[in-house]
Amino acid sequence: MAAGLQVFGQPASTDVARVLTCLFEKNLEFELIRTDTFKKSHKLPEFIKLRDPTGQVTFKHGDKTIVESRAICRYLCTHFPDDGNKTLYGTGALERASIEQWLQAEAQSFDAPSSELVFQLAFAPHLKDVYPDERRIEEDERKLKAMIGVYEDILSKHKYLAGDEFTLADLSHLPNSHYIVNSGERGRKLFTSKKHVAKWYEKIADRDSWKQVIKMQREHPGTFE
């Protein structure tokens, strides 16, 4: 049984959502402490400001503090291997190596264009005096389409990115993909235009762990103004 797990941040943050999904997959009890870095009047705990000036997500377990969402997910899987989903980070060196390759691909090649599209397509239309940048949208769409083309080929051979089991490789893609798919027809087409990618996204978005995160986001949407 895990004890003393704390997550600081807003469920609306993609980084926080990634960590929450992992916690739910592992069936771990935790405390979510909502911090709003968008409000200048909100005072962040000192240990967050020292470790992570952006304060998007911070995780504490006893005297350990981790601030990068993928690192937090790795920590949870390795520190609590027998809780919840036992195959989330693979069950052997070969499986873990494959998952790691996808985690790196997501962080290095998928995250940048998809994060920009999340802002431009999902958040910018709702912000005061902020307007979508068509040039940037087109450039990031081009980059993301190239990545999704690679995913389509892989997913034509396997149910999930690292094989036939849902793993951190898939989980890590969920937050940004969700915002893009639900931003409107333009974003949705990036995923639905590819048969195997569309089927994959439908499966991972239908997991109970992710549905719990969506519920938290709807109950406490956070502020972005």
UniProtKB/TrEMBL annotation:
Ranges for domain GST C-terminal: 92-224
Any one annotated GO CC term: cytoplasm
Domain GST N-terminal: from-to ranges: 3-84
Any one GO MF annotation of this record: glutathione transferase activity
Any one Gene Ontology BP term: response to herbicide
Catalytic activity reported: RX + glutathione = an S-substituted glutathione + a halide anion + H(+)
EC number: 2.5.1.18
Keywords: Transferase
Keyword Transferase: yes
Family statement drawn from the similarity comment of this UniProt entry: Belongs to the GST superfamily. Phi family.
Name of the molecule in the record: glutathione transferase
